[in-house]
Amino acid sequence: MERPIEETRRIRRGRLASEEPGIDIRPGPGMVIFYSVCFTVPLAVAVGCLALGSEQLLSVALIMAVAAVVAVRPLLVIVADGIRGRLLTRRVRRTLGAGLPERLHAVRFGLHDQNQLSLAPWDTAPVTEGAISVEADGLHLYSAERSQVLSLTDVWGAVLVPGRRFTPERFDIYLRSGEAFEVSTMGAGALGAEMSAAGIRVLREL
Fold first, then answer.
1. How many whole angstroms separate alpha carbon 138 and alpha carbon 152?
2. pTM of the model as a whole
3. Class of the domain covering 5-18+96-204
C-alpha cells in the first residue's frame, strides 16, 4: 500500500536533513548503449551458431536468443521514453510560446490531489505540462498559467523517484521555506545532472 504523500515527504525531509551524500547523475546514452550491446551480441552469436548448422551449437544458439529477447524489452522501453520525451518537449514549446531558453526540460506539474497536503501551487492537481530550466540564478519553472524563478540558495534538495511500469521518473523538489513540489519527466538523467552540477543535492528514493 502506497504511503500518503505527507508521510513520504516526512521521510524524505529526514534524509535531506542528514549527512547522506547526493548521488552521481550523468547524462548520456549509457543505458541505451548497455542494452544495445546486451541485445546485439547474443543475437549475433545465436545467428552465427545457426549459420554453422552444427547440432552441438543449437543449445548455445537458444540460450543466446533468449538473452537477446530479455535485453530487447528494456531497450525498447528506453527508446519509447526518449520519443515520448521529445514529443512532450515540442508540445510544451508550442504551448508556452517563444522566449524559452534553448536548454529546458519538459515536465508535468500538479501530481497531487488538492485534498492532500500540497505544499506548493506547482504541486496541486490538475496535471499541467510545463518545463524546468536550470540557470545560474536558479530553477526557472514554466507552465501556461504561471512562471517562477527559484533561487538556487532556496532549493534544499531533490529526491529522484524511479518510474514504475512505463510511468516516468519523478523529482520531488524541496525548498528551504518548507514547500515541496513533485514533477515527472522523461529526461530524469539530464535534469538531475544539471541540478547536481548547479549544487543541488539529489538523493535516490529507497
1. 4
2. 0.78
3. mainly beta
